[in-house]
Amino acid sequence: MNRPIPKNMKAVVYRGVDDLRVESVPVPRIGKNEILVQVAACGVCPTDIKKIHQGTQVPPRIYGHETAGTIVKAGAGVRGLAVGDRVGLHHHVPCMDCHFCRHRAFAQCETYKRTGITAGFEPAGGGYAEYVRVMDFCLPGVVKIPARNSFLEGAMLEPVNTVLKGIRQLPLLADDIVLVAGAGPIGLLFIRLLALQGIRVVATDLIESRRRLAKSFGAWKTADGADPELMGKLGKLTQGRGLDAAVICVPVDAVVAQAQAALRGGGTVLLFAHTVRGKTAPVDLGVVCVDEKSLGGSYSSDFTLQREVARLVFSRRLDVRELITHTFPLESTSDAVALAAKPTPESLKVVVVQGTQAG
Ligand SMILES: [Zn+2]
Ligand SMILES: [Zn+2]
Questions:
Q1: Which residues pair with residue 263 across a beta bridge?
Q2: Ligand 1 is a single-atom ion; what residues have CB below 5 A from it?
């Protein structure tokens, strides 16, 4: 039985740079192989903030892609999912068949690059609306949320996936020493997942409260990112050998150069926050060639890790609940975005929630 669904709904529409408006829009219609989800929680992601602040995409759009909610309608051709299921969504799902997918470069796949979840206009995630339409090619990315877990936890699957994907690119052994630069929500996820893997994490951040959090998430050592003695300290911690890897969770070029200098030969710097193209920075290419210090990047999620991510989050081996410090109602999405863009010492993950159903 499908539940009655209104004709119109509230949505937060991006109308131009830093211009988010609460508007009434039609509830999306779904096709035979699609589902309609009533949104309960949607995380505010740095990539959405970037689009809203920099106007990199043509308005109007409805953003929000870290979405969890309840299926309220399912097309006749949908199998394995039903009205009433509580689910977490992935707005990008690769075809698993093209040249890029065969190379496991899923984020470069054409199907993956199409956003398959929408609340109207050009598909852009749609999580900042009451309902979203999930297109057929995104159904393999729908994950059921166990009864004991919350929608908030379901909304964290996508960011956790991106972090696990990044870690999988690092050739690490137990007891290795890895720098995580930046202990915001993403940095803290890296710290916890690396620690679970037996890695000794050195976490840096400019904010003291975040360094304390880094400790509680499993960091072995912490340091002030601006400490002029930092390089010497990293040298001491690794007994002069250098770091096995460094994950850069802040978009600061100087941090990359510093991390590269602190690596051992054959180590890896992984860029995770440099998401703006067209900016260049000097790199000592001899260090990459002769010292075999790799410089790599990771972006977006890996569909094949989805089950593992769901297990980690829903078992609470990776407990994401303490990461969510602020929730805002849908009408206040622009405040949520503003806080996530300019975090306070107390704020970590910011989530837009609807109704009383988020918990
Ligand atoms: Zn995201
Ligand atoms: Zn593909």
A1: 243
A2: 45
Question: What is the spatial distance between Cα 3 and Cα 304, in angstroms, rounded to a whole number?
Answer: 32
**Distance (Å, rounded) from C-alpha 7 to C-alpha 129?**
13
- Beta-bridge partners for 39: 69
Rounded to the nearest 10°, the torsion over CA 209, 49, 40, 24 is: 140
pLDDT band at 324 (very low <50, low <70, confident <90, very high): very high
Q: How far is the CA of 12 from the centre of ligand 1 (A)?
A: 17
pLDDT digits (tens, 9 = 90+) for 257-309: 999 999 999 999 999 999 888 989 988 999 999 999 999 999 998 989 999 99
The candidate with the shortest Cα–Cα distance to 294, out of 274, 268, 260, is 268
| CB-based contacts of 81, cutoff 8 Å, min separation 6 | 35, 71, 74, 87, 139, 142, 144
Q: Residue 145: what are its φ and ψ, rounded to 5°?
A: -95, 125
What is the structure's pLDDT at 47?
87
Question: Mind giving me the DSSP string for 142-167?
Answer: -EEPPTTS-HHHHTTHHHHHHHHHHH
∠175-186-71 over CA atoms, to 5°? 120
Cis bond leading into 343, ω under 30°? no
Q: Which amino acid is at 60?
A: P
Asked whether residue 325 falls in the same domain as residue 189, the answer is no
Residue 136 lies in a domain: yes
Closest-CA residue to 176 (of 115, 110, 92, 264): 264
Q: Indicate if 193 and 238 belong to the same structural domain.
A: yes
CATH of the domain at 133: 3.90.180.10
In a domain, 3, yes or no: no
CA of 337 to the centre of ligand 1 (A): 13
Same domain, 341 and 208: no
User: What is the arithmetic mean of pLDDT over 152-167?
Assistant: 96
Q: Measured in angstroms, how far is the CA atom of residue 158 from the centroid of ligand 1?
A: 6
pLDDT confidence bin for 345, thresholds 50/70/90: confident
Q: Which single residue is written with the structure tokens 């052994």?
A: 173
Taking the centre of ligand 1 as the mean of its atom positions, its distance from the CA of residue 146, in whole angstroms, is: 22
| Residue 83 · residue 40 · CB < 8 Å | no
User: Do 61 and 12 form a contact (C-beta atoms < 8 A)?
Assistant: no
19-26 vs 8-16, strand pairing mode: antiparallel
